[in-house]
Design goal:
This protein has a 22-stranded parallel sheet that branches. By secondary structure, the chain is an all-beta fold. The chain has one helix and 47 strands. A hairpin with a 5-residue loop joins β4 and β5.
């Protein structure tokens, strides 16, 4: 019974040390049948024991706001004594506690910095939160639901191997319903470093608006740079928007990819997905090592891009001589064995492609180039409504064939198709519309 003698209905099943004895989990569930707990202190009686892998307490108030207290190490319930499992003080080092919804910077930072304890748990924002402290990149193992609120003042200045506000979102985790504002400035010397609001996306991003500026540099090797995610690998990004500027300052390695929403989708099973996403930010390459740059995506290497729109500017100040520039995707160079799909995407009439370079390019309203590494591509029901104009400030010689890179390739849908259809490669481009003007001035 409760403190005021009200009836408590529920199941009780707890072992002395349930994690060790038989490897099972014991639980105690306390919930009134059709009524709420009266005000007061409520007690749970447990046999004295040590729980070697800890315990978790989930509390729901009358408004169904959930708070979680979780301990992942040894905890002893003593003989003839009590242990207050609801205490929340900064000196409490035994357990971790998050009020839910999160109401201030301290609560948010505590949640994201203790992901080992909160893997699989969900936290929600209860109001806008303004950050005042530098942000240390974290790996998100739980779920953060912004409930439409804004996290502002994000300040990330780091050097590392996986870079962003969140280095990764794990396969079982998600970031959703949140607006994030601030700046991300990252540099790395490791090959294939992903940079963005999130580095690696293995889980899900849903209804996230990025208003951070993302700036990346690398003096010795390649980067994958995107506003929302650097690299999507078997992850899903749905109904997200990038409104921040994405800038690649330098890259030492070839095959660097830059996109307004994501740098690269890589997946051998075509499970990587970008759906219903929009880019409104400016995407800029200042590196001669850029291989592909796009309004939405740098390169698709085996995933799906569905119903996405580019409304931003793609500015190329430097790029490889065989680089691809696209309103939606810079290139498709799938060599992972999966079909790469771009379906029902739009390059909006207000989008702009600025080429401030004399290097040879493949420029397309939807995709810059289909690379000769491609295994299979489907570009279907896409629309380019933007004009494509190139002014070439030098003379050049065009050499026919796939080894002749000294030229510009322009197309309303695809700038250049390097991959031939063969018995094992079938490229499908159908149901697409171009309403933009295409011009070149030599």
């Amino acid at each position: 019974k409760g403190f005021n003698a009200e009836k408590i209905a529920g199941a009780a099943n707890a072992g002395l040390d349930p994690k060790v004895a038989g490897g099972t989990e014991g639980s105690v569930v306390l919930k009134p049948a059709g009524e709420t707990f009266a005000a007061g202190v409520h007690y749970i009686a447990l046999l004295p024991s040590t729980f070697t892998e800890g315990f978790k307490v989930v509390y729901a108030n009358d408004s169904n706001e959930i708070s979680i207290k979780k301990n992942t190490g040894n905890v002893a319930f003593p003989i003839n004594d009590g242990f207050d499992i609801t205490a929340y003080t900064t000196a409490d080092k035994l357990t971790t506690w998050i009020p839910n919804p999160l109401m201030d910077e301290e609560d948010l930072l505590y949640f994201v910095r203790n992901q080992a304890a909160y893997a699989g748990e969900e936290a929600k924002l209860g109001q806008d939160i303004a950050l005042t402290k530098p942000w240390t990149p974290v790996d998100l193992s739980g779920t953060l639901d912004g409930q439409g609120y804004t996290i502002s003042g994000l300040d990330v200045n780091v050097t590392g191997t996986t870079l962003g506000a969140m280095c990764s979102i794990s396969a079982s985790a998600s970031l959703k319903n949140v607006i994030i504002e601030g700046q991300i400035n990252c540099s790395s010397a490791k090959k294939g470093t992903p940079v963005g609001l999130v580095g690696y996306l293995h889980g899900m991003m849903y209804n996230v608006t990025n208003r951070t500026s993302v700036t990346a540099s690398n003096t010795s090797d390649r980067l994958y740079v995107g506003g929302l995610a650097g690299q999507i690998e078997k992850g899903r990004m749905i109904n997200c928007t990038n409104e921040g500027n994405v800038t690649l300052e330098s890259s030492g390695g070839t095959s660097t990819y830059v996109g307004g929403v994501a740098g690269v989708i890589y997946s051998s099973t075509a499970s990587g997905l970008i759906s219903g996403c929009v880019n409104k930010g400016k995407v800029t390459s200042n590196s001669e090592k850029t291989n592909a740059i796009g309004g939405v995506l740098g390169v698709n290497q085996g995933g799906e891009v569905v119903a996405c729109v580019n409304k931003g500017t793609v500015e190329v100040n430097s790029i490889l001589s065989d680089g691809g520039v696209g309103g939606v995707a810079g290139a498709v160079e799938n060599h992972a064995g999966a079909v790469a799909i771009i379906h029902q995407c739009i390059n909006d009439e207000k989008s702009v492609i600025n080429l401030n370079t004399t290097n040879a390019q493949a420029v397309g309203g939807i995709v810059g180039k289909l690379d000769d590494k491609t295994t299979a591509v489907e570009i279907t029901e896409c629309v380019n409504a933007a004009d494509i104009a190139v002014a070439v400030a030098r003379s050049f010689t065009y050499t026919p064939g796939y080894t002749g890179y000294d030229g510009f390739y322009l197309g309303g849908i695809v700038g250049r198709i390097k991959a031939e259809n063969t018995s094992s490669i079938v490229n499908k481009i159908y149901g697409c519309t171009n309403s933009g003007d295409i011009s070149a001035t030599l």
